[in-house]
Amino acid sequence: MSSKRELIFITTNSHKVKEIRDFADAESGNITIVHRDYEYPELQLDEIEAVARESANYVREKTGIEDAFFLEDSGLIIPALNGFPGPFSAFVFKTIGNDGILNLMADKKGEARKATFKTVVAFCEAPSKTPILFVGIAKGKIAEEIRGCGGFGYDPIFEFEGAEETFAEMSTEEKNRVSHRSRAFGKLLDYIS
Length: 193
Ligand code: ITT
Hints:
Maf protein, 24% strand, 6 strands, single chain, binds inosine 5'-triphosphate, alpha/beta, globular
């Protein structure tokens, strides 16, 4: 008989599932990630925390899900662009993409290229409980050009601080060692263990 605990992860993004599964296997071995590909509306709120929390509330109410689940909202924050694209990262990626971000950053040098990835995991333990949030960040900078073909989304333009490579030039294992997502999810693993 297996003593593994199942944890439902609600996302439409298969790359997120791979990263979370790999991290859970490496860190715990006791957690089975069950992927539910449920699409909920991309809420346009000012904070990534609010998007994660309200998305979890939406899923809880709309689906009537009884089991514990989590979802997460992530974004790229560029201080030199006043925090853009932040909570609007999904829309911005679909519209202007990595080339558009590089164009907006064309005149930014040195410190002005700093950027932060942020993930907020929202965990619902039971239908009657409000979501608990776990935040993870990864600091780095916007690369001068698109590099690498691993990862997804903004990975080809994000260089983790102190690293030569973009996230797209790293393996999943390497990205998981330092990423915003693994840091946020690691806090959830600590909470439930
Ligand atoms: P779900 O909401 O269904 O989970 P999504 O892809 O819409 O999937 P987000 O809203 O959290 O996920 O992502 C916002 C944008 O940021 C989206 O364009 C992603 O591709 C991008 N993104 C999120 N995490 C990333 C990461 O680790 N590396 C690079 N880009 C990322």
